[in-house]
Amino acid sequence: MIVGNKNFKEGFLWGGATAATQYEGAYNQGGRGLATNDFLTGGTKNSPRKVSVILKDGTKTFLDREAAVPEGAVGYIAEETYYPSHKATDFYDHYKGDIALFAEMGFKCFRMSISWPRVFPKGGIDGEVPNKEGLEFYERVFNECKKYNIEPLVTLFHFENPAYLADNYDGWYSRETIDFYLRYCKEVFTRYKNLVKYWIPINEINVLRGYTRLGCRDTGAQARYQALHHLFVANALAIKLGHEINPENKIGAMLALSGIYPKDCDPKNIMGAVEYRRRALFFSDVMMRGYYPSYTRSMFEDLGVTISKQPGDDDIIRKYVSDFLAFSYYRTTVYHTGVVQETDTGGQLGDANPFLEKTPWGWPIDPTGLRYVLNELHERYQRPLFIVENGMGMDDVIEEDGSINDDYRIQYLEDHIKEMKKAVVTDGVDLLGYTTWGCIDLVSSGTGEMKKRYGFIYVDMDDEGNGTLRRIKKKSFEWYKKVTQSNGENL
Ligand code: BGP
């Protein structure tokens, strides 16, 4: 059967993407509980973000984001330190104006996340009632989207855990967290039944680890994969629930899937790259196919991991697979044996690729790689795909006349969209949509900087959190508007 379109299909979901912990702010307003990210400091390209903790003896310290948190330590908020999630770029107070700007750009889709502790401040523990103010806030946001016919694409868990669950249950390491999370899912699926149809239960599951992202203190492979097993079960049960509450719901897996190339034709590097890629595709294999793939045994042996499953887990995972595969794509990695850490599942930078330019943050720019990954995933799963993050982080400059001429961003996006179009038109890839990352400037999740900007809309805020929060359209704003309004014809 030959499929494929001449162009992007009618209803292709053009838009932009954000996440609460990087955009929403108002961390202590409207009844929101604390999130693990609220203890994560700002950082820079050269000095990574740190988690602030109080040790058992009362002393305060800062740990690397991915370091194990010592037994008995509790997160704290230091007055003297800047925590980017606290204010972020304040979607909470700007949502109306921001959504109006997205509508003006012709967005058909807006990806955002719900902050779990805004809905259940303690994560949804037994007897906890949901936070009315939090639920009302998101209802207002979704109604605003509806007003402009913008389809919300909602992530339920984007890098922030309720701190209460992290401190009292060890986050996703605990099996009980599955039930708490499902209580939260039930609440939002029910409440927004008529407002939201596209859901992503977990953001970039393949790069989750440690205290902030998994809520677990232990960062070792054993604890990590056990926690991830709980996430697989939670994801499957969320799909079940979401389909029961509204059969129209489309619920997708989401991974960081920037591409991997072998360094050369040395068979060791070719096979090594395949094995390395599996560290990431393992997650989509489980969520799209419904079972732990055959190579899991050797992968777990290498990592020294043994998963404890409960009877019924495998059936649950088999029965409730994802409706589509969403992924983020920024760059590609060059692999050769020994160059990347064996435990990595997200794609470190690897060797330099002599054929590609890099952004100032060292990320190789590779539009063809996007077509390559789209084909890789299409051929592997034969199910709809959704590019839910792509873009170029740059330190934009405001000219004297107030304009921001981000031609480099326009070039980056144009080149990627052209390759995406080839994947759809030439290769017949079934693609639901394209939402660029950080369509309005927000805090970088990797470094905590403000100056790593991705937006079509500039936000006046610096790396220390100073600024008026004023929104300014960049040159790319008008360009993207043409793209969305012509359904990708006019690039
Ligand atoms: C992805 C995350 C996003 C986002 C993006 C860009 O991994 O899902 O939250 O931040 O990467 O990364 P950074 O912010 O580090 O530039």
UniProtKB/TrEMBL annotation:
Catalytic site positions: 389 (nucleophile)
Similarity comment: Belongs to the glycosyl hydrolase 1 family.
Swiss-Prot/TrEMBL keywords: Glycosidase, Hydrolase
UniProt-recorded name of the protein: Aryl-phospho-beta-D-glucosidase
GO biological process: one example: carbohydrate catabolic process
Organism: Paenibacillus terrae
GO cellular component terms attached to this protein's record: cytosol
Classification via PANTHER family: 6-PHOSPHO-BETA-GLUCOSIDASE ASCB-RELATED, GLYCOSYL HYDROLASE
